[in-house]
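Section 3.1: Structural characterization of target chains.
Under the original work plan, the team committed to producing a structural model for every single-chain target entering the pipeline before any wet-lab resources were allocated. The record below documents one such target. The sequence was received from the expression subgroup and is listed exactly as submitted; it comprises 91 residues.
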Amino acid sequence: SDTATTFKVSGTLKEKDGLIFFSYSIIFRVPVVTTSQSRPNQPPRPGNSHSVRYQEHSSTGTLKMKRGKVYDLLRSGGNIYSVVVAPEIEE
């Protein structure tokens, strides 16, 4: 799509007493497309103009995690962003 969502996650991991602490920051930009119609209350048709603006959202926090368990960090626009700490998979 010409109006892609951008998504950035950064953070740190620390381990203490068998638990993993993940301090994170998430920043994402979501496109909001608006169509202006040449005739009100009519279906979109060729010649209608479109405009795109972006909304920026952010979230920060700290998770106390156990290995192998999935944790949801964020829910937005029907999407769920999750994180899990797991051993590296060997090929």
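The longest strand covers residues 19-36.
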